[in-house]
């Protein structure tokens, strides 16, 4: 490929190649300070849909070891989103060492809090907020559970903030950590932020899972216990490679729900969620 | 006349009990199942060897206190579900 960047994110590494300089320059800015890598676990290629579309209404198709045949191409202006989707796709379908949970995670005192839920539940925003308020940000998209040890490894890629969350985080995060504002993407307006120096410096340091939360945004504040069987079932659905891992995945997930309390957390706004999370954590840490 | 003989397809089956429910990993199919009592108990009883429905009810009634006549339809229903799930087969 004409342009490319090698990146290590947590214990995993990526090679992102692109037919255009723009997406690679945007990645280099967003991931400034991240280590590079000699060889990559996953390769993502951003290519023109057809050769002439490199110049005429350029459209980015996501290629790599795994490809979704029906994925719609993205306009070049959204090259950063294409790179992120490509990284997610390669990982989701190709990762075998870790059990991947579609979850955000943060750490305090060596213990990890896992936040999982459907898109729009507020995982990214909550993890990013906590990461600027006394917690170590471990990731906003994937949590990596190592079956052999039960430890959770970070995957602190750039945080993908959507719509209203962008302004909310601008109050805490310096401007140079923000990527470009991307309007009209399939997920609305998106702006990425680079995790802070602590999250990047400690990106290969795992933590012992201590608490699983299923947050839900836009509801009156309420906390409900989630039984281990329900937590197990919801986490199998939140994992992209549970089936592929077979018995290792089963052992990892049953171990997780047996050793971790799980709670559902409904919240009306970020401030209330943060307050409740600190209360729950203080009780769980006792 | 004795009905069909059933046997658990339990080789390598992993069972973890989570607050009253059991989650099972069936290595032959790679599938995970979440089951409620008496399904795990049926699998356990069939682990002794193939038997028909009457034999299964007899084995379970030796281990648990219940009325065999009342429990028989429920056990038959659970046995059918386990067969559909591939955890029990006819021998």
Keywords:
heterodimer, A: 286 residues, alpha+beta, Phosphoenolpyruvate Carboxykinase, domain 3, eight-stranded mixed sheet, five-stranded mixed sheet, globular, B: 91 residues, Arc Repressor Mutant, subunit A, two-stranded antiparallel ribbon, 3 helices, 40% helix, 24% strand
Architecture blueprint of SSEs:
The complex is a heterodimer of chains A (286) and B (91).
Chain A: E1 3-9, E2 12-18, H1 21-30, E3 42-48, E4 59-64, E5 74-75, H2 79-94, E6 99-108, E7 111-116, H3 123-131, E8 136-139, E9 142-145, E10 152-153, E11 159-162, H4 164-170, E12 182-185, E13 188-193, H5 197-201, E14 208-217, E15 222-225, H6 228-238, H7 242-245, H8 247-259, E16 261-267, H9 270-284
Parallel strand pairs in A: 2-3, 7-14, 14-16
Antiparallel strand pairs in A: 1-2, 3-4, 4-5, 6-7, 6-8, 6-9, 9-10, 11-13, 12-13, 15-16
Helix pairs in contact in A: 6-8
Chain B: E1 6-8, E2 14-18, E3 21-26, E4 31-35, H1 39-46, H2 53-63, H3 68-84, E5 88-90
Antiparallel strand pairs in B: 1-5, 2-3, 3-4
Helix pairs in contact in B: 2-3
Q: Please tally the helical runs of chain B, counting DSSP H or I stretches of 4 or more residues.
A: 3
CATH class category of chain B:
Mainly Alpha
CATH architecture of chain B: Orthogonal Bundle
The name of the CATH architecture of the largest domain in chain A is Alpha-Beta Complex
Largest sheet of chain B: 3 strands, antiparallel
**Spatial shape of chain B:** globular
Radius of gyration of chain B: 13 Å
Mean pLDDT over the full residue set of chain B: 93
Q: Classify the fold: give the CATH topology of chain B.
A: Arc Repressor Mutant, subunit A
Q: Estimate nothing, just give the exact number of structural domains of chain A.
A: 2
From the spread of the alpha carbons, the general shape of chain A counts as globular
Question: Which regions of chain B have little confidence, pLDDT < 50, spanning 5+ residues?
Answer: none
Distance between the termini of chain B: 17 Å
